[in-house]
Amino acid sequence: MTRDTVGGGDRQAAAEWWHTDIIDMEPNRITFRGYPVEDLIGRVSFVEMIWFMVVGVMPTPGQAKLIEAALVSGVDHGPQAPSIAIARMSMTCGGSLNNAMASAVNVLDDIHGGAGEQAIGLFRDIEQRTNERVDIAGACREGLAAWRHAHGPIVPGFGHRFHQIDPRAPRLMGLVAEAAETGDVSGRFAAVAKEIETQLGEAKGRPIPLNIDGATAVIFSELGLPAPLGRGLFCLSRSVGILAHAWEQQTQGGRNKGPLPKGWLWQYDGQSTRPYPSR
Question: Nearest Cα to 95, choosing from 259, 260, 255?
């Protein structure tokens, strides 16, 4: 072990403080998982680079097509989405683009932004329940019952408060079907999602179609991602829309825009106006 007392520190101890398989770097040399960065620049797409950095291997062309489709589909859903609204409000408070993006991404949590991660967990649980004794329909019934017992009645990835049919989901599922035909994915998780959709519709007496969160969860499940990465990749996707809206708001101007237009007030449910008691 070599020691370096420059600055009173131990260079070996400093080197061992962090361990990573992702990047190796020294003066005049940068490699990502063994590949020199100059060999990747101009040869690897941004989507391929995302997958390579996160997963550790380069995706096949078919896999990269699915990853890109999932990322493109989630970039924006308008200022009615809390993350986008927060980005725009932040800019009217005098913030910078990075502050607006950080503020917006930070609200992509369990309810707004977390359904994809939850759907991956649900799909994986149901797929694991499927075996020689339990068919996919039975596994879905078991899995949905277990989900509701643990988390309540809302099933992530299905239905939408704004769209009767989420226009993004059928397109994504069509791409999954194409990838299954070419052998890039198995199609098992797509089958799980379709069976859940069927059972939810039968129980409600009306269609409860797959939404964007469920469709991207199918893609990420088919590609073998653990559930938490589903949310992480959604954050990357939505950050594109967040940046676009923050920049647009900066160019439009405006000062101190809150969640309600000027002249609109919230509902007050407290005490009516009353005099302060004299002492």
Answer: 255
Contact 231, 189 (CB under 8 A): no
**pTM for this prediction:** 0.90
Residues with Cβ within 8 Å of 214's Cβ and at least 6 positions away in sequence, in order, are 115, 116, 119, 156, 157, 158, 169, 193
C-alpha to C-alpha distance for 40 and 53, rounded to whole angstroms:
12
Give the relative orientation of helices 188-204 and 212-222 as an angle to the nearest 10 degrees.
150
In this structure, which amino acid lies at residue 220? F
State the Cα–Cα distance between residues 36 and 110, nearest whole angstrom. Answer: 38
CA gap 73, 65 in Å, rounded: 12
Q: Are 191 and 241 in contact (CB under 8 A)?
A: no
Rounded-to-integer distance, Cα 208 and Cα 18, Å: 47
Domains by residue range for the chain, with CATH: 20-58 (no CATH), 82-252 (1.10.230.10)
Nearest CA to 248 out of 73, 81, 82, 92 is that of: 92
Residue partners of 2: CB distance under 8 A and separation at least 6? 11, 12
Is the distance from CB of 52 to CB of 67 less than 8 angstroms?
no
- Give tens-digit pLDDT for 81-139: 999 999 999 999 998 999 999 999 999 999 899 999 999 999 999 999 988 678 999 99
Query: Mean pLDDT in the chain?
Result: 92
Average pLDDT over residues 217-240: 96
The residue type at 65: K
